Amino acid sequence: MPEALLEGFQLLLSNLWLVPVGVLAGMFYGAMPGLTSSGTLAMLLPILIVISPEKGLILGVSMYAGAEMGNSFPSVMMNIPGTPAGAVTAFDGYPMMQKGEASRALGICILASTLGAMMAGIAALIFAPSIAEIALKFGPPEISIVIIFGLAVIAQLSAGGFVKGLLSGFVGLSLATTGTDPTFGQFRGTFGMTFLFDKLPIVAVLIGLLGLSEALFHAQSGATTLLRKEGGKTQVSAAHIWQGLKIGFRDVLAMPGQVIRAGIIGLGIGAIPGAGGSVATFVAYQQAIALATPERRKMFGKGAHEGLIAADTSNNAMVGGALIPVLTLAIPGSAAMAVLIAVMDYHGLSLGPRLFSINGDVAYAVILSQFFAAFFIFVIGTALAFLAYRVVAIDLRLIIPVIAVFCLVGSFSQNNYVFDMGVMVLFACIGYIMKKFDFSVVGILMGIILGPMFEAEIMRSWRMSFGSPSIFFESIITQVLWTLFILTFAGPPLYRYLKKRFRQSKENT
Amino acid sequence: MKLTKAHLGAVLFPLLAVGYSTFSLWEHFTKEYRDLTVNYGLMVNIPVLILAAIAIARFLFVEGALEERSSFEGAPTSTGVTQLYKPIGLIFLAALLVVTIDWVGYLIGFFAFTVLALYLMGIRKHVLIFSIAIVTTTIIHFVFVQILQLQLPLGPFPTLVE
């Protein structure tokens, strides 16, 4: 291993220029609403396969990492997330921006993403084979329980009240049944429209619910800028932005536990084939809420730093996590990783466990590139933050029509259907009504995003057990997951109760 | 109890939820889906009906339940003046664009949409309006169509794009 590691490092050094290029390109398309990393990597496949395998893989992984960070810019500054994972960043990032803490929010996103990518790199370097082995033991019942972790946010994050939050979540789950039944292939809720045979276009739905609906709110309010005015004018000076970024960096460094927990969640769920980034960020977010104090819990969805840290750390750690089964077992956990396997296969690299023994230099070069990608995420992300900050300082009356145009193009870009633009407009109206009367937009989004996966996994589990629910409790992993689930709900209040009792008894004595 | 406009607005989302869930349940029972599919449909739709009924009842009969969210919560620059015609106008323009974009193409469509939306937002400087519309359409053309190869509807200008 040390020889291969050294060779990998040398290989990486000779191709190091590809990392900043990949990160920058990734940030660019990540910031474009509707463009997914998998779609863009697939689009760039002709380029990735004509260059040497190590170049193709390093460029692909760097782009993937950059895209996950780049997605945070429109999420924080304009509430237009390009992916489901970016929606979680928008939950707290955008309210921070509204409170005049835009640069602080960007600082949190940048450093949290950097640390997430670093953690993933370290874990991939040391524990790759063992993580892959555990991840492969996650079958449908285990993944169903992991998704329940994510869905639990619906109950925990109900600013407008428990009933409203739960109603939004179940409406989301109901809407998520639109399209082809994942088990039997029956069409449901399509109203006879072929465009809905697959499922609801997720990107269009989330751009409508979060992005355009917010633009409608701003249009109604007659506001002139998205940024808070200080001393009668909007602060866009470089010094002001840098100050905010530094506070954001400090916020992240002040919460190492939060970073480590979100990193482990992102890494672990990223390594499970089929689970994906959105599940990782939702679960990390749920955990951040569950373990927050009652006072801090009220802040989630209104600009909680913990929420933003959880979202961005897990999102970037997930990239490294997804890389583990690819390199060790040749199992792609996501569509983007399938593109990388195609690159490896095209060049005749040994796929699966023999990769490290036969092409160890390439495997280690790819793993080590994550550290450099993390560094460049920090540098390039910080530089771009200045630009992103200035964009939203423009008069809101000028920017709303432009936001609307980008929302329309972004919703089109997922499937290349004009129909999706219509869906986006429809969900913008729904989002507007929901926000106006304090229904949880987060809840409906969670349901729509996680619903199809939840249904598919639960159906598979039921079929495997011939309808018996015992399958959800049989394996050791399911038992551990249920225990963790109960602990995250019952643990914090129990701990506070015991602490209070202990303090009272101490005072009495 | 006196029904107000606010009451009607507040019950709109629960009513939409009831409508969709009723349709979904009707579909599950009439289209001969497999048992597992029907079970899942019941699992997600029955709670919607129950929760929507509770939400509507709370809005109508519980005092203080009808709290409209501040339209610009946390933001400092709100003028406090509500201009409902702007969001309605934007939605109308967006819907119009969606309906017509296949015929007019994205170049004319986005250009016209931006011009009209800017005018709706209260901008009256024509040079500024046309400049923003041209820049936005150009960015869409070069970034999304030329570089990222998005297949936006071309309308009457297929050769210009190729």
Report what the structure shows.
- Chain A folds into two domains: 2-129 and 211-416, no CATH class; 475-509.
- In chain A, strand 3 (229-230) and strand 4 form a beta hairpin.
- Chain A contains 24 helices and four strands.
- In chain A, the strands form two sheets. In chain A, strands 1-2 form a two-stranded antiparallel ribbon. A two-stranded antiparallel ribbon of chain A has the order 3-4.
- The N and C termini of chain A lie far apart (60 Å).
- With 509 residues, chain A is mainly α.
- Chain B has two domains: 5-61; 85-161.
- Chain B has helices at 5-10, 12-30, 35-61, 85-120, 126-147, 158-161.
- The longest helix of chain B has 36 residues, at 85-120.
How would the global form of chain B be characterised? flat
Amino-to-carboxy terminus distance of chain B:
64 Å
Question: Could you give the count of β-strands of chain A?
Answer: 4
Number of helices of chain B: 6
How would you spell out the order of helices and strands of chain B? HHHHHH
Percent of sequence in beta strands of chain A: under 5%
Give the largest interface: A-B, 79 and 78 residues
Report the total helices of chain A.
24
Average residue-wise pLDDT of chain B: 82
Which class do the helix and strand fractions of chain A yield? mainly alpha
Radius of gyration of chain B: 23 Å
